[in-house]
Write a structure and sequence with these properties.
The chain has about 160 residues and is of the alpha/beta class. The protein is built from 6 helices and 7 strands, in the order αβββαβαβαβαβα.
């Protein structure tokens, strides 16, 4: 049975009552999840990565101590639809700037980026101005994260179609 013929909804989508299909245009939405910088606390990133996987998304988890360069290179190699970054170290603005600059240099700044971690509320507008699409703080329901990731990935796929024309 092919991916597009799958009948059974991933159990987490059923459990959360989400009416989404992580297979879009015959391909599963692929999410890259990573920890940027020196911060080694990855529990939240692992929880989000696992929830996305259990919701039927393809997930590439890079782990801790990644650089913006490693994230961008992996995004290209893996042909991801969306990038998720967790930061708890306080260097979220600088790392987001570096990441967004590299995405632009490589011509893939149409790939949406979301962030999570301990991010002061006053920094969220700055991150969004830099180009981060969503910021999820501690306690954000997994249902919200999954829904928003899905919506951003679908918009990215639609943009890709337009760019190919």
């Amino acid at each position: 049975m092919s991916i597009t013929e799958e009948k059974k909804k991933p159990y987490l989508l059923e459990l959360l009552g989400l009416d989404i299909n992580p297979v879009v245009g015959g391909r599963r939405i692929k999410v890259l999840v990573s920890k940027l910088g020196l911060d080694g606390h990855d529990r939240g990133a692992k929880v989000v990565a696992r929830a996305l996987k259990d919701a039927g998304f393809d997930v590439v988890y890079l782990g801790v101590h990644q650089t913006p360069e490693s994230v961008v290179n992996t995004a290209i190699e893996e042909d991801v639809d969306i990038i998720g970054v967790s930061i708890l170290s306080g260097s979220h603005i600088e790392l987001a700037q570096d990441l967004m600059k590299l995405l632009k240099e490589k011509g893939i700044d149409y790939i949406p980026v979301f962030m999570g971690g301990i991010i002061p509320p006053q920094d969220i507008p700055i991150l969004k101005k830099i180009g981060v699409k969503e910021v999820f703080g501690p306690g954000t329901p997994l249902k919200t994260i999954i829904q928003k990731v899905y919506e951003m990935a679908v918009k990215k796929r639609e943009l890709e179609k337009q760019l190919r024309r």
